[in-house]
Amino acid sequence: MPERLADNAVPTIPLPVLIGGGLILALVALTMLLLVFNYGQLWFQAYWSKARVTFLELLGMSLRKVNARTIVQARIMATQAGLGPDITPRRLEAHYLAGGDVPRVIRALIAAQRADLDLDFDRACAIDLAGRDVLDAVQTSVNPKVIDCPDNASGKTTLSAVAKNGVELKIRARVTVRTNLQQLIGGATEETIIARVGEGIITSIGSAGSHFEVMEHPDTISKAVLQRGLDAQTAFQIVSIDIADIEVGENIGARLQADQAEADTRVARAKAEERRSVAIAREQEMKAATADNRARLLQAEALVPKSIGDAFRAGRVAAVGPANGKA
Is the model's pLDDT at 150 over the cut of 80? Predict the structure, then answer.
């Protein structure tokens, strides 16, 4: 009987094992309490918003120096807006670690979805990481904005162009643009739009026969500029170009003609002065030549009496008497 009781006895657990197991359970319980204390509110918020996230994911965010609240709130916004299950906490966390603005990207996606724009999460993240304001781009695509041409920041208030008749026109234009989300990455900015529109307006006015044509039909300038496709390879799409103001400047052609006439007069005067100087020099040369010839003549005349005397002394000339003609 004692042997049977010994066989049925419950084996005893050593005390060190019990202490170790208790410590492990206490450590696990403490860890769970810390997780619940730190992330319980976020977990419940995500759970009741149907944007579920685990405690291990929240702990991993903290270990990776990621703001868990930012990621969870962005996930909740995406879920409540119906953006789909593709926007996972891991993708949001990756964009956060890359230096992107996660909440702004989600708000931009929500705005694009409401406006029925073709914008996915990857493109929105790429736009954000490229340094562009993705939310402002979506808002500009929905609600176009107006750009002044020329830009007031440049210090100029009007564009100056000259028609074929030489009259100057000073024009101020307003360009309405919307964002082109497909070319926002790598596309030219507003400065390029302003420069191209200004160039197109100046070219169109320069090809007009008279400034009266431009003032009577300013819409022809707008249509001609729009047909040039100035928004190619830019981050914007030009909706319209409106001529806000036209002023008549000075008559550049008449001024240029007057300046040319004055220049021609100066050239003619210079040439006349050159000819006069040449004539005066020639006159002085002739006077010098005359004086030289006169000197030569006087020198020759001085030799005549000497030659006659030499002839008398040599007997080559006979003396003639004044009365009878005898020597």
Answer: yes
Length of the chain: 327
Contact 172, 156 (CB under 8 A): no
Please check the confidence at residue 105 and state whether its pLDDT lies above 90.
yes
Is residue 225 within 8 Å of residue 241, measured between CB atoms?
yes
Asked if pLDDT for residue 138 goes beyond 70, the answer is: yes
The reported pTM is: 0.60
pLDDT winner (highest mean) among 123-132, 148-157, 183-192? 123-132
240: left (phi over 0), alpha (psi -120 to 50) or beta: beta
The answer to whether the Cα torsion of 7, 8, 13, 14 is positive or negative is negative
Cβ 227 vs Cβ 220: under 8 Å: no
Could you report how far apart the first and last alpha carbons of the chain are, in Å?
A: 215
**Domain ranges for the chain:** 36-142, 145-251
Q: Looking at the domain covering 145-251, what would its CATH class be?
A: alpha beta
Residue 212: what pLDDT? Answer: 83
| Residue showing tokens 């759970």 | 47
Query: What is the C-alpha separation between 79 and 52, in angstroms, rounded?
Result: 10
- For residue 320, what are the contacts with CB-CB under 8 A and spacing of at least 6? 327
